[in-house]
Amino acid sequence: MCGIMGYIGRKDGYPIVIDGLKKLEYRGYDSAGVAIMNGTLSLYKKQGKVNQLEQYVHTQKTNGNIALGHTRWATHGIPNDANAHPHRSQSGRIVMVHNGIIENYAALKSFLTTKGYSFQSDTDSEVLVQYIEWYQSTYQLKIGEAVRRALGDIEGSYAIVVLDSMNPESVIVAKQDNPLVLGLNEDEIYIASDANPISTYTQEVIFLQDGECAELFDDGTYHIYDLENENVIPEITTVKCCDENYSLEEYDSYMLKEIFQQPQSVEACISPRVDVLQNEILIPEIDNHKRIFSQAGKIIIVGCGTSWHAGLIGEYLIESLADISVEVEYASEFRYRSPIIRENDIVIAISQSGETADTLAALKLANEKGAFTYALVNTEGSTIARHSDVVSYLNVGVEIGVASTKAFTAQVSLLTMIALKIARIKGTIKYNEYKSIVPQLSDLPGLIAQTLKSNDLMLEVAMSHFEKDHALFLGRGPNFPVALEGALKLKEISYIHAEGYPAAEMKHGPIALIDENMPVFVIATNSSALSKMISNVQEIKSRKGQVIVFKEEGQEFPEEITDHMVSIPKTHELLSPILASIPLQLFAYHAAKLRGCNVDQPRNLAKSVTVE
Length: 612
Ligand code: AGP
Prior knowledge:
CATH class of the largest domain: Alpha Beta
CATH topology of the largest domain: Rossmann fold
Number of strands: 26
Strand content: 15-25%
Number of helices: 20
Bound molecules: 2-deoxy-2-amino glucitol-6-phosphate
Strand order of the largest sheet: 3-2-4-1-10-9-11-14
CATH superfamily of the largest domain: Glucose-6-phosphate isomerase like protein, domain 1
C-alpha cells in the first residue's frame, strides 16, 4: 500500500507534500517521511502519522522546490523510523519512496552485500534504491538510465519516485502494478498515488501506465519512456477538482460523519439512475449493452472485504430477480485456481477505492479470458475503473474512514438497481412488481435518515457489550451478508472477535460458543424468514446467550426472548439489507469508541490494499 506525494517546480514543495500525504493516509499510516531538495538533500522520517512527522520537522528548514513524501503501511519490516521512507542509497546521493513489493529483494540484497553494500532498514524498498545506485555507479549512468536498468531486473510491483542529489533539477518516477499520477501545470509537476491531492492544484493529469518511467523537470516539462527506452506519448486526462470537504464538521471521526452522510450518499447513488416520472431505472452501462446482459451465461462478482459482502447481497438479488446464475468470489482467491470464465460471462468487480490489488488482478484475468467486465467503484479514474469495459460510479464522495460504511450502502443500492434493470430487460420480473419496487428505491434516503435515529439505542447496546471478547451475527437470505458485514465492522475497528453466520448454520457448530457472555446480533428484517429466526433466537436464549434483534417496524417478535430489540423502518424485503446494516455500523462505532480505539485508522489496516 503506502501513499506517495511529490512536487517539483518553483514553489516550496514541503507544505504541498504534507497536505497531500494527509489526503493519502488512507493508504497507510504507520510511519511517514519527506525528502526536500534545497541545495542539499534533507530527509526526515518518523514512526507514526503524518501529523507526528509534521511536529518532528517543524523546527527544521523545509524550503526547497523539490519534495517527496511517503506514508507507509508496513510490508517488510516493522513500523519504525528506520523502515520509514524515503530510503537513501549507501553514498547518500540517491533517495527514493516506494509503494509496492520487491519480490526478489532477497536475491538482490545478497548480490549487493557481496559488492560491499550494507543496509539501514529491513525493507525491500531500501534494496531497490541501493540497486539503482549500484547500476548508476558501476556503469556511470545518468539517474534515469540507472532506474530503468535496475527496474528491468525487478520482480514485483512498484510506484517509485527517485531523487538524485547530483541532478537537482529533475526527479525520476516509474510504475508497475501500483498507481502513480502526474499533475501538470505550466511550470511545475505534482506526483501522487491518486488524483485527489493533485486536483487541488491542477486538473490536467497523466495516469502513468505499467512499465513506464518518466523524468520530470523543475520547469514543468517531462519525458516519458518505457522500460525498453522507447518514448511514450501520454494521454492527458482532465479530472474533477476534488472539492470534497475534509472537515469533520460536528463529528468526532470520519466514520461517524460517513455513517450519518448515508441519506445523502445513497440519494447521490440512486437519484441519477431513477426516472421518477417514467418509474424506470436508467443505467447506461447496461442499457447500451442490452444483448450482453440479456444473454449472459453467468455473472461472476469479485471483490474483497466489505465489497465482497455487497457482492453476496448482489448474488441474492440478481439470481432472484434476473434469473442469472451468479458466483461471488474473493478476488484474492479467484486467479489462483482455474476459474471457468466464458466469453458470454460478465465479471463484475466491486471496489470502493478502485485500487485493491487482488480485485484488479481478478479483473485483468477476466479481461484476458474475454469476459465482459463491469466495475462498480467509487473513486473516479481509479485503476479498476480504467481496466473495465464499463464502469458505474457509486457517487458517494471520498470515503476516508478505513471502515467502509457509505460505500457499502451505495454498493448494495447499485446492485439492487442492476438486478432490477437486468430483470426488466430479460422480462424475468412482473411489470407490476418492478413498478412497485422502483419508487421504493427513491424512498430509501428518507428511511435511512429514520434508521439513523437508532443511534442512542445502539450506544446503549454498545455499553452493554463493549467489554465482551466475542460476538456472533446471524442472518438469513440477503441478511446473511449483512451479518458478515456487521461482524467485519466490529472486529476491524473495536478488535472484538466477531463471526457472521447464516442463522440456520448456528446449530452446526457455533452454538457451542453460546453462553451468558456471548452477544448474538440477529438480523430478522426479512419477514419471509421470521418464524425460523424466532426459533433460532429461542435456541440461543435457552443457552443464556444475549440477544439483540433487528426486526422490521410492525413485525411481531416475542420480547421475552430478546435483550434488545431494534426496529428498522418498513421497506421492500429486497431493500431491507441496506437499512439493517446501519445500526450495525453504529454499534461497531460505539463499541470501538468505548474501548478507546481509533475508529478512522484502526491498527494494522489501510483503506486501500494495493499489495497482494
Ligand atoms: C472495509 O471496512 C474494509 N476496510 C475492507 O474490507 C475493504 O472493504 C476491502 O479492503 C476492499 O476495499 P475496496 O472496496 O476499496 O476494494
